[in-house]
Amino acid sequence: MQKAQIGLIGLGVMGANLALNIAEKGFRIAVYNRTSEKTDAFVAEAGELAENIIGCSSLEELANAIEKPRPIILMVQAGEAVDQQIEALKDIIDADDIIIDAGNANFRDTRRRMEALRDSGPRFIGMGVSGGEEGARHGPSIMVGGPREAYDHIKPVLQAIAARYKGEACEAWLGSDGAGHFVKTIHNGIEYADMQMIAEIYGIMRDGAGMAPAEIGKIFERWNKGRLNSYLIEITAKVLGVTDDKTGKPIVDIIVDRAGQKGTGRWSAIESQSLGIPATAIEAAVAARSLSAMKDLRIKAEERFKIETGSIETLDDARIAMLEDALLAGKVIAYAQGFAVMTAASEEFGWDLPLAEVARIWRAGCIIRSQFLDEIASAYEAETEKTDLLMTDAFSDLISRTQGALRKTVAESAVAGLPVPALASALGHFDQFRLGRGTANLIQAQRDFFGAHSFERFDAPGAHHGNWS
Ligand code: ATR
């Protein structure tokens, strides 16, 4: 029997869709799942694609079914399952075979795994895959980290299965070891911030202006034709227009306001803190999900504080335009923070992350896909040195134009008692960022007062102490 060009372990939702995508692009793929009924069902349901699929009932069978050097994608639950599969594969495959972990791994685990396999093999790749079930099936955004030559071997498959933006495949090798999984993590952190800011604007319209979901949906639909054009705005507009089958009410009104999270947003906040890079909009979005989960406490707090939420002025066209600009400004700042975290990580871990390329492969396939990312790619291409996104010509113009709207939106929301934690954090960041003279002189004085930590003076070099007594 003709051998497969690639293998895949783990036929859960993501694995099964990725395998179908690969088979559809004309590659022969061998698949294995711990529970073999799933493998049988998968092959049986693959229709005409089944001719490109070899169902295997053991890892040995899988290994024997693939041409050497064997690339094998792992799409099992992140964490221990990945370590178990690597252990099991190690005894079966060769040193120059390639294990590709395509799950949502923490990049620190990817670095550890790669280090452990460095001398003995097999070769290891950490690959971030974004776009959910639909992306996996029809074209995800793919972020690769690991040995370059191992990537080169699987590149034709990745090129074929990735999403396309104006014909360009949204996949790239971004650097060694955990670079791909790190970039995927920051992608998710930015996604949290983007979603939270959209939800905050929805909250202003719902609670401040008393608008119905369908009306709000119409505004998002309009915004989707402008600068905010993106997948998240598009689905927000759609979601707001959907009616619940059971009750006939707008579906968002019967969904409990308690958000889940699987951890990648939190990891981005943790990593930004570890690197000493402010990513406050992302942090605020993660925290907002955490607070959303404390529903019982929030209900009690509402009873205790009994603070009336004020209404805001009726949303005429000018005010709708203001909210649009505010969302755009908040978004720019959140993305700037995410890219700054990647810049710092790139230096810390020696990756030399190509920021324009990162923006390019996020233009399609992934959840934050948008034309905005095309603008970020162009902004980074135009810069000769790595700089903060807010300092690039294109985005400094944009933020200068929209910051007033963000300021007004945050101020009015604060007065009305409408929570806008991510937008407010973004604004706070921008206001500190843009001021040459801040207030850390006082922090330094306090530190010197209680801990003799010393301070620098404007008028003399070296470390100084105050005469605090
Ligand atoms: P889904 O993507 O459908 O939500 P999941 O629970 O995240 O599924 O699991 C994804 C894949 O990881 C499944 O193929 C699962 O195998 P089973 O079908 O046998 O459950 C696989 N998986 C989870 N833990 C595993 C382990 N320790 N070893 C091997 N495969 C494992």
Tags for this entry?
single chain, 469 residues, alpha/beta, N-(1-d-carboxylethyl)-l-norvaline Dehydrogenase, domain 2, Single alpha-helices involved in coiled-coils or other helix-helix interfaces, eight-stranded mixed β-sheet, 19 helices, NADP
Please tally the helical runs, counting DSSP H or I stretches of 4 or more residues.
Answer: 19
Top-tier CATH class of the largest domain: Mainly Alpha
The strands making up the biggest β-sheet line up spatially as 3-2-1-4-5-6-7-10
Quantity of strands, as a count: 10
Number of structural units classed as domains: 3
Largest sheet features: 8 strands, mixed
CATH architecture call of the largest domain: Orthogonal Bundle
Based on CA inertia axes, which overall geometry fits? globular
Mean pLDDT rating: 97
CATH homologous superfamily caption of the largest domain:
N-(1-d-carboxylethyl)-l-norvaline Dehydrogenase, domain 2
* Estimated structural class: alpha/beta
Helix content: 55-70%
What compounds are bound to the protein?
A: 2'-monophosphoadenosine-5'-diphosphate
Radius of gyration: 25 Å
Distance between the termini: 87 Å
| Helix-strand string | EHEHEHEHEHEHEHEEEHHHHHHHHHHHH
Strand content: 5-15%
Function: Catalyzes the oxidative decarboxylation of 6-phosphogluconate to ribulose 5-phosphate and CO(2), with concomitant reduction of NADP to NADPH.
InterPro entries: 6-PGluconate_DH-like_C_sf (IPR008927), 6PGD_dom2 (IPR013328), 6PGDH_C (IPR006114), 6PGDH_Gnd/GntZ (IPR006113), 6PGDH_NADP-bd (IPR006115), 6PGdom_BS (IPR006184), NAD(P)-bd_dom_sf (IPR036291), Pgluconate_DH (IPR006183)
Keywords: Gluconate utilization, NADP, Oxidoreductase, Pentose shunt
Organism: Nitratireductor basaltis
